[in-house]
Design brief:
heterodimer, A: mainly alpha, ABC transporter involved in vitamin B12 uptake, BtuC, 2 strands, 3% strand, B: Rossmann fold, 9 strands, ATP-binding (chain B), Putative ABC transporter ATP-binding protein (chain B), transport (chain B), P-loop_NTPase (chain B)
Chain lengths: 285, 240
């Protein structure tokens, strides 16, 4: 139980950290696209290695994630179709290709479609590995490394991420290539999505990326505050949702997504100047 | 030593095969204050974006203080149109002005105490110091423009390029911005400004570029801002 919660917590923290920048850039749905198309990378890499734990799966997934982002940009920048149409076009076709491959050739193995879509975090503790004499679930090691990479990335490129998200043109004029920053961010989104994949699947991971960041957005006037609040809500949502799902024997990642929506609405309703508090007039002393 | 702050040769930019600006030859003197005027769709914004290498050129060259590399654009402080940024971004006025210092820092480095002081001084000059901790979403149009100008000042560049800085702002801010620009010009700074109100050109500028895909006239305001040139720029239909 503790290990399941830890897997959820690390997933939530690593996704929520990057989620801040995705929400600010208005790119939540690009993440949705990536989290689906990485399945194609996983499937192709699995054909090559026949090992679900191979690091090649992560590399394959990241490459397909970047190809997804690149295709969306190319089609979108042609100005022949809008960017959201390009997103819909690219991600469904790549995902469908992966689904066809899974259903045709990988019917009998762990990559079954229910788990692909919804994830199953309860299985995480079954798959264990011993590193430095410590025996922990494989997913926990993987997520800890990803979280460390994401934290380092945001700490190093904080200034650049902020400028290019706020004012991309000014960022280019100031000598900070927005493409370098954008594709680095999206590589990490792909890596994070594929490690979160086992625990939460392709559909619910979008809630992990965006819900805490969207909640934090309502409460922050500075970027650094938004990051901390986003991480805080990630922790609350995953621990409360995870416990609820475990105790009621329902979908754990589903419970986290529902709790995330509830916490967003509570903040939305009860924030300062929100629809409720702005109507209550306290007497001025 | 370079002779001109900005020089362009045969600059042509096209969007999907359609020419936006054609054969632009410019020589901008140092410490001058130049307006770009012209009708909607004349390519005013395209011209400044081409100078900043934000638009791909079909042909032509741009040199900034005698340097024609892409890196030279860092010598320019750019003030974009107000609509071009995400105003709901969680950031404060002071934060935005400090962004003007980023080009001096390079990758990874964080703003120093000195960067912060320069930003605070720029805010003082734009009379925005009391708003320094306010989130940018809570500013009026005129205040936003002052923040943008303060950010450009914090860059301490020699050349300023601005895209319609006076659009949709109050008279007080307009006066403050033009006064600041004149002060900076006296210190040797060069200004190239897209301007929409032709009647204020003689008060605000000493040079003018009259643009409608090609340059219709350019030179000192007294010489070229004639009725004939205005008619040519605004009312003559181009071939397309």
């Amino acid at each position: 139980m503790i290990e399941v919660l830890l897997v959820l917590l690390l997933t939530a923290l690593s996704t929520a950290l990057l989620g801040v920048f995705l929400v600010l850039r208005g790119q939540a749905m690009t993440t949705d696209a990536i989290s689906h198309t990485i399945l194609l990378g996983i499937v192709i890499a699995f054909f090559i290695t026949n090992d679900l734990r191979s690091p090649l799966l992560i590399i394959g997934a990241t490459l397909v994630g970047l190809i997804t982002v690149y295709l969306i940009e190319v089609i979108g920048q042609s100005k022949l179709v809008s960017k959201d149409a390009a997103t819909g076009l690219v991600f469904t076709s790549l995902f469908a290709l992966a689904v066809i491959l899974v259903s045709k050739y990988l019917d009998n193995i762990h990559l079954d479609l229910d788990i692909v879509l919804m994830g199953q975090v309860l299985f995480a503790p079954l798959n264990r590995i011993e590193i430095l004499g410590i025996d922990l679930p494989y997913a926990l090691w993987q997520l800890a490394i990803v979280l460390l990479i994401n934290v380092t990335f945001v700490a190093l490129f904080y200034k650049e991420l902020k400028l290019s998200s706020f004012d991309p043109v000014y960022s280019i004029v100031s000598g900070f290539s927005t493409s370098i920053i954008y594709y680095s961010l999206m590589s990490l989104v792909s890596v994070t999505a594929v490690t979160a994949f086992d625990a939460v699947g392709t559909i619910l991971v979008i809630s992990f990326f965006t819900a805490p960041a969207a909640t934090a957005f309502l409460l922050s006037k500075k970027l650094s505050t938004m990051i901390w609040i986003s991480l805080m809500f990630a922790a609350i949502n995953s621990l409360v949702g995870g416990t609820f799902g475990y105790l009621t024997d329902t979908s754990i990642s589903g419970s986290v997504a529902v709790i995330s929506m509830i916490s967003f609405f509570l903040v939305f309703l009860f924030r300062k100047d929100g629809p409720i508090l702005s109507k209550i007039h306290l007497p001025v002393p | 030593m370079f002779d001109y702050a900005i020089e362009t040769q045969d600059l042509t930019v096209a969007y999907q095969g359609k020419i936006a600006i054609e054969n632009i030859n410019l020589k901008l003197k140092r410490a001058s204050r130049t307006a770009i005027v012209g009708p909607n769709g004349a390519g005013k914004s395209t011209l400044i974006k081409a100078i900043l290498s934000l638009e791909k050129r079909v042909t032509g060259q741009v040199s900034i203080e005698g340097d024609d590399s892409k890196k030279a654009r860092q010598k320019i402080a750019y003030v974009p149109q107000k609509g071009d940024v995400n105003w709901d971004f969680p950031t404060t006025v002071l934060d935005v002005v400090i962004m003007g210092r980023y080009s001096h820092m390079g990758w990874f480095k964080r703003p120093s105490k000195e960067d912060k002081d320069i930003a605070l001084n720029a805010l003082k000059a734009m009379k925005m110091i009391k708003f320094k901790d306010r989130q940018i979403s809570q500013l009026s149009g005129g205040q936003r423009q002052r923040v943008f100008l303060a950010r450009a000042m914090a860059e301490e560049a020699d050349i300023y390029i601005m895209d319609e800085p006076l659009q949709g702002i109050d008279i007080k801010t307009e006066a403050l911005i033009m006064e600041t620009i004149k002060n900076l010009q006296e210190k040797g700074k060069t200004f190239l400004i897209v301007h929409h109100n032709i009647s204020t050109v003689p008060d605000y500028f000493d040079h003018v570029i009259m643009l409608n895909q090609t340059i219709q006239a350019s030179g000192s305001v007294n010489d070229v801002l004639t009725e004939g040139n205005i008619k040519n720029t605004y009312y003559e239909m181009s071939d397309e």
